[in-house]
Each structure stands twice: as C-alpha cells, then as structure tokens.
Amino acid sequence: MSLIALRNVTKIYTSGSQHIAALSELSLFIKAGDFAVLAGPSGSGKTTILNMVGALDRPTEGAIAVDGVNYDDLSSRQLADFRLHRIGFIFQSYNLIPVLTAAENAEFTLLLQGIAPAERRARIDELFERLDIAELKNRRPGELSGGQQQRVAIARAIAPKPAVILADEPTANLDSHTAAELLNLMRELNEKEGVTFLFSSHDPQVIAHAKRVVRLRDGQLENDVRQPL
C-alpha cells in the first residue's frame, strides 16, 4: 500500500474569467521510506502537489490519501488536525518565528500537539545533537546562518514523527556546500530512521541526491525514474 496516493487528480485555479489547470488527471503513488523529488520547470505542478498532499489545498477532481486516510472523508478541521500530527514541512524560507529561540521554534509543533514539556525538551535535545546544532538552541533565528536555520526547520519537521516530510525547494536560499551537507543529512535520516521525504525542486543537486525522480510538465507526469543508490 502506498503512503501517498494521488488518483486522477486535477487542480484548476480561476483568475477572473481564466481557468488554469495546474494539474490534469495526474496519478502518483509514493511508498513509505521513499526519498523522492518532484522535478520540472516553474508552473509544472510541483508546489501544487505538495500543497494538496500537505492538506493545504483540495483538488478540483480526483482523490488524495495519505497514510491510509482519504482526504475526501475529512472536514477542514479534521484536515488541519491530520496535517498537525502526520505531515512535516520544510520551506525554502525556513519559516521560523523571529522572537522564539531555535529550541522553541523546533518545539512549536509539539506544543500545538499538547506534548508534555519534559518530552518536548527531550525530543529536541536529541535532535539538536544529531543535527549538530546543540550549542545553538538558545539563539534566535536572526543570530543563525541560513544553513543553521534550515537545520532547526528540519528538527521542527521531524520532532512530531510525521508520516511524511514535504520539502518545498529546501536548498533555494543556501550555498552549494551547505545545501550538500543538508541533503546528506536528510538522506541519512531517510536511510537510518526510515523518514519519508517528498521534495519539490529544480536544483540539480537535490535531484542527484534523490532515490526517485518524478518529472512533471504542464501539470502532467512526464516520467518517473528510480535512481541507483
């Protein structure tokens, strides 16, 4: 059974009298433990897929299921709750809260989930050690480099133990050396911890690190290739 299943998904955006098809009858299946990238030019549908898998948007037609849960069966409130507990997000702009410390940012989703303070701290302390940022936990985002902020964002995404982590252009604001370090780190988390990643990117470095490359063009699947390890 697939961890992520998109079946005949169409997404149409309306702007005035214009109707723009971001996706057209697309079917895509991602297995647990995949390290997959959605690749393609701007406007090919990459971010649209992530938004719908992340329960941030609904398809115009078709069905989406994640971790055995069909999104059609959920209300907006239930979708938000599912997103909180089962989906992790990594953004190109990091999306850290400026007034919170690195540790507080990483704990934020756990706080929303109602996890007890002692367990929150234990999870974050362990992750910060693994991500080599333990000495940064009391610094605020403005005191961190881009690579350090992205490590905090990775900790925030992983801490709740989601079914899948969605990463939208996660290397876009990083230099090539830092990007390579973080991609190696995420690949290690995938291989050793079984964390499932689905990226959207046109960065050749991200594509080269992926186990599976799903190429899109004009809202449709162009090809789907599993790369050698």
Structure report:
This protein is α/β, with parallel strands linked by helices. It folds into 2 domains: 1-66 and 163-229, P-loop containing nucleotide triphosphate hydrolases (Rossmann fold); 75-85 and 97-162, no CATH class. The chain has 7 helices and 10 strands. The strands form 2 sheets. It has a 6-stranded mixed sheet with strand order 6-7-8-3-9-10, sandwiched between helices. The protein has a 4-stranded antiparallel sheet with strand order 2-1-4-5. The chain is globular and about 50 Å long. The model has no long low-confidence stretch (mean pLDDT 93).
What descriptors fit this protein?
six-stranded mixed β-sheet; four-stranded antiparallel β-sheet; 10 strands; 36% helix; single chain; globular; 229 residues; Rossmann fold; alpha/beta
How would the blueprint of this fold be written?
Blueprint: E1 4-15, E2 18-30, E3 35-39, H1 46-53, E4 61-66, E5 69-70, H2 76-86, E6 87-91, H3 102-113, H4 117-130, H5 146-158, E7 164-168, H6 176-193, E8 197-200, H7 204-209, E9 212-217, E10 220-226
Parallel strand pairs: 3-8, 3-9, 6-7, 7-8
Antiparallel strand pairs: 1-2, 1-4, 4-5, 9-10
Helix pairs in contact: 3-4, 3-5, 5-6
